Amino acid sequence: MRKTFIAGNWKMNTDIASAVALAKAVAAGSAYLAGKMTIAVCPPFVYLSAVAAAIKGSSVAIGAQDVYFEANGAFTGEIGAAMLKDVGCKLAICGHSERRHVIGETDDLVNKKIKATLAGGLLPIFCVGELLAERDGGRTEAVVDKQLKAGLAGISVAQMASVTVAYEPVWAIGTGRTATPKQAQEVHGFIRKRLAAMYNAQVAEQTCLQYGGSVKPSNAGDLMGQPDVDGLLVGGASLKAEDFLGIIKASV
Ligand code: PGA
């Protein structure tokens, strides 16, 4: 049985006070689910320590929105996995579509980040997803397949136990236009099939697949009701404790 995994990606939002208040509200409001599902919040780098201190001892995990692939050194502005672990992170998002399409990250860079995340003892959330033009052109599966192959190159069967794959259609992110549960299931089923081919049936069966893109309390239940949707990666709606807790409740 795959454990439900709901993560909130705060992106470049909040300040210290609102980040701490939001994390505390999420921790308090989801305490009744401790051990039943995995819940994580991903604040901006600069608020990780404050959030970690604020919810210390709670069952809510803390994740980073990105990570650099080198451990340390002369890489001005970058943050390595060991640093993230040092401030209390358990996971790191790798290859989010905004990093791919706004910042310009390549599949190869995403692959290096996943490897560095695993080497640093953190759990990667590996994001894949197609642009609207790619979906309209009937290329969704080809795009996702390429991202999967490149992103997971050199990742072993054993390491796959630590990897979550998030399917986030780019056209659904921050647009209010959620993929229908059927569209999400189609791609999630495809990802699981590809994982079986790339690894084996057990890896395919055990890997947690999150959906992300305009998830709200009102659509979370239907998305989570799909057989291959095991969790959610939530952007905008994770910035309001009430909405994020509503999504968590709908996912039980
Ligand atoms: P959204 O973002 O929920 O605001 O669409 C999802 C994401 O980018 O992870």
How would you describe this protein?
It is a single chain. It is built from twelve helices and eight strands. By secondary structure, it is of the alpha/beta class. The protein has an eight-stranded parallel barrel, surrounded by seven helices. Strand 7 (208-212), helix 11 and strand 8 form a beta-alpha-beta unit. Helix 1 (16-30) runs parallel beside helix 12, helix 7 (140-151) crosses helix 9 (181-198) and helix 11 packs parallel to helix 12 (241-250). It is globular and about 45 Å long. The model has no long low-confidence stretch (mean pLDDT 97). Bound molecules: 2-phosphoglycolic acid.
- Give the % helix: 40-55%
Largest sheet: 8 strands, parallel, barrel
Structural class category: alpha/beta
Shape: globular
Number of helices: 12
Roughly how many Å apart are the termini?
14 Å
Strands of the biggest beta sheet: in what spatial order? 1-2-3-4-5-6-7-8
- Estimate what percentage of residues fall within beta strands: 15-25%
Count of beta strands: 8
Q: Give average pLDDT, whole number.
A: 97
**SSE series:** EHEHEHEHHEHHHEHHEHEH
What is the rounded Rg? Answer: 17 Å
- Ligand names: 2-phosphoglycolic acid
Uncertain residue ranges: none
